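Agenda item 2: manganese (II) ion complex prediction
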Amino acid sequence: MPLRFSLSSLIVLCSFTAILAHNNEDPTIKTMEDFSGYPIHESHSHLSSLSVDAQSLQKQIDELSSFSDTPAPSVTRVLYTEKDVLARRFIKNLMGLSGLSVREDAVGNIFGRWEGSNPELSAVATGSHIDAIPYSGKYDGVVGVLGAIEAINVLTRSGFKPKRSLEVIMFTSEEPTRFGISCLGSRLMAGSETLAEALKTTVDGQNISFLDASQSAGYTKDHNDISSVFLKKGSYSAFVELHIEQGPLLEEEGIPIGIVTAIAAPASIKVEFQGNGGHAGAVLMPNRNDAGLAAAELALAVERHVLESGSIDTVGTVGILELHPGAINSIPSKSHLEIDTRDIDEERRNTVIEKIHQSAISIARKRRVTLSEFKIVNQDPPALSEKSILDAMVASSKELNLTHKLMISRAYHDSLFMARISPMGMIFIPCYKGYSHKPEEYSSTEDISNGVKVLALTLAKLSLQ
Ligand code: GLV
Ligand code: MN
Ligand code: MN
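Presented output:
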């Protein structure tokens, strides 16, 4: 028997109190108005089945984690690989089972739609990603996709009928693992001409082009199709993403729901140094121009420049450092670094980028190597959540008797780009010790259920607006 966390008792309790406080009406008569705050037709007024099927949601999370290129508990699921294609099939199947009509765009963003009673109105959307960086965990992104499908099930079981259509979106490649660009699907949906143009020539680490990889997964091979992914501003009246916090605050403070007010501004940079290489025994130290040591110096400079900002909110990471030819007895002739830097203050983040650039130039000069590439791959502004969505999320948490905390997202999300074309908001749930992007990532079934409840209520409210 699936373990069901009944929402009805909570909602009855909240409504009961509210009704008693307001007009002393019979608290046993419940309508959707009680929990949504917005009027709804009487025939949709049954709350008895409003519940999260926590056990099957957990089963789906576990099953999805088995589509991985590395052994459990780690998860590795990279864009357009065989495992990604299997995982996509799994998601489309679940969407279908939930009664959603499924479509995919040219790059594989997947949409599951529940048609509202007024098709003239723009839809309310929710969703996240299921790609997983190498050796990561099973909750990042996944909670926002499987949880969104479950939120639809919650609403269906409750007898709710949406006025605005509801859409669940699974975004293509939120992680930059394969082609070096984050939020590929949502960036395109938000109309990034720069990315569309770059994808003409983008290749992965094995020199496979984006378009060949896309075709191998069943999506477009024609560059001209890419602009069909762009969506008009206003295509959605709201976008809400459910996600694990990826930080420790909610767990430390014992708060079940985080309501995101803003997403920090991310940037990423690719750098390459070239030297002459040579024999590790025969070339004497004064005669070397070691591209590896230039990379090492730059990595330390990144840390220094980030710390110089004086703010705890400025961060920088050298997550990729490759040396060529990669032999113990060969002086590196080429080095490749990829640098990730973020801040909630865009200008301060830009100052760090500028300092990193100056350091790369001076290190190259000092070490007599060539700075053959300094490429800012992306330098995105931060995004703010929309007040109307914040209000809906806060009201939902309160009605569910779940305490919440307003907070910043230091990680980026597809919401950062959806905010360019739609009012946006995010719901966070606690995760164990704030762990993420590693196999120890974990959120409890109860915390996930709470997030799904808040998401379902928020979607219901926004659908009726
Ligand atoms: C998303 O995965 C991020 O790196 O913030
Ligand atoms: Mn991630
Ligand atoms: Mn994520």
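Discussion summary: The chain has two domains: 3-264+382-463, 265-379.
Owner for follow-up: CH.
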